[in-house]
Amino acid sequence: MASFQLVMEISFEEITNFTIFLEDEKIVKFLEADSCHRYSDKYLLATTLIYASRTKRNPLSVDDFYCLLYLANDMEEDIEFKNEILPWCLGTEWESQWRSFNLRKEHLWKKMGYRALVSLELLEEIIFYGEFCQKSWVWKRSRHNDHGGALRDHHRPRCENIISPRGPRRSPMGCHYQKHSSEMKRTSISASSGYFTDSSDEKGGKGGLLGEISILSEDYNKENSP
């Protein structure tokens, strides 16, 4: 029972506030630049929310958001798409400021008690609530299968092997798959996830994407118990 109590760490209010936070003009431009959702898909954003909750950062600053999203990429991604975050956070001189950014990220990780693993079940609960209750475009950011899973470098397009951070002053990162331009709209939910996590819960749980939202809020369970 104690382990289950630790899972119920995100409230509906936190999801709502985070969804509103992501409508900040700077964040919207950043997310739209990642049209293929390679470093800021809905699973990475949900992970960032959990990290923000664990650090007790309230309200969350834009700089902290970038650091925690970078950490989420550290934990869950193999390809260095995360470096595209740096010029958005640090500006054109991002290379000279990398050390201070990394120290800030390490400080936030310490504030989390180094608890970086997140169950897939909890991520899907957050996405379910955000997409169907908040009806936000943010939680529809599904990564296309072409960009998901594990591939050897020689099977990846050149634009995904030679990655140079571009930032807000240059055109977005290129994509080898032309068909994505019409599919990856802000409001699109047609693409499948293409996301694989090492921290998923093998045993599953009571919730699930289309099931009862059961692990987000302890108060919800109490109020809706028979």
Give a brief description.
The protein is mainly alpha-helical and 226 residues long. 43% of the residues lie in helices and 0% in strands. It has a domain of 131 residues.
Q: Classify the beta-strand content into a percent band.
A: under 5%
Main sheet specs: none
The first-to-last residue Cα distance is 20 Å
Number of helices: 10
* SSE succession: HHHHHHHHHH
Q: Give the overall shape, derived from the CA principal axes.
A: globular
- Structural class per helix/strand content? mainly alpha
Residue stretches low in confidence (pLDDT < 50, at least 5 long) are 1-7, 181-215, 217-226
CA-atom Rg in angstroms: 17 Å
Kindly state the mean pLDDT as a whole number?
74
The count of DSSP E runs of length 2 or more, i.e. the number of strands, is 0
Summarize the amount of helix as a percent range.
Answer: 40-55%
GO molecular function, one term: protein kinase binding
Family: Belongs to the Speedy/Ringo family.
Region (Disordered): 181-209
Biased composition (Polar residues): 187-197
